[in-house]
Write a structure and sequence with these properties.
InterPro entries: Alpha/beta_knot_MTases, RsmE, RsmE_MTase_dom, tRNA_m1G_MTases_N. This protein is α/β, with parallel strands linked by helices. It contains 6 helices and 6 strands. A 6-stranded parallel sheet has the order 3-2-1-5-4-6, with helices on both faces.
Length: 190
């Protein structure tokens, strides 16, 4: 029996957050079976968080494994860091490696996941892939992204995704997101 990875395959681009928040997100990623998390510094990221031991590879693996045990997941998420390059450079590198089916940026002013997916499916030039959809999600710090960062995401064809009418903590937003992405019928061909 061959283990089957998660459907859809999820990659997260996560701005630096408070260390306790990062720990919770790592556990969620391990539980759910997220493919990768790429940490970066956004305009509102607090650089003093980079001195935390949470960035130690042993700490990261411990949090991921704890989540994997909880979710009975056997796929270890890949973790990447880029605390020096500009966001544009990070995105260009990502897009060289993976052809993402869907690109989202979490933003309270955005639209819902079903609306975004249905809109994309209705585009005559779009064809739902026969393979597992690749989802790329950008998540900001607690205070969110500044407007020019949102504009950058839009230039790279990210759709603004709103998960709730409430203001959510980052780790809660990640949990909401992963729960919504489990709705496989969203990704089936029309």
């Amino acid at each position: 029996m061959v283990p089957i990875p998660r459907f859809p395959e999820v990659h997260i681009l996560l701005a630096i957050n408070r260390p306790p928040t990062v720990r919770k997100i790592l556990q969620l990623a391990g539980t759910w079976g997220v493919s990768s998390i790429h940490f970066f510094v956004s305009r509102n990221s607090r650089r003093e968080y980079l001195t935390s031991p949470v960035w130690n590879s042993i700490e990261i693996e411990s949090e991921l494994l704890e989540g994997m045990e909880q979710g009975k997941n056997i796929f270890l998420p890949k973790i990447h860091f880029d605390f020096k390059n500009r966001l544009e450079t990070i995105l260009q590198e990502k897009f060289k490696k993976v052809d993402f089916t869907f690109r989202f940026v979490l933003d309270r002013r955005g639209t819902t996941l079903p609306q975004i997916i249905e809109e994309k499916k209705s585009d005559l030039n779009f064809e739902m892939p026969s393979r597992t959809p690749q989802v790329f999600v950008a998540i900001g710090p607690e205070s969110g992204f500044v407007r020019n960062e949102i504009d950058l995401w839009k230039r790279f064809d990210f759709k603004e995704l709103n998960l709730s009418s409430q203001v959510l903590r980052t780790e809660t937003a990640v949990a909401f997101l992963l729960a919504r992405l489990e709705e496989k019928n969203l990704f089936l061909k029309a």
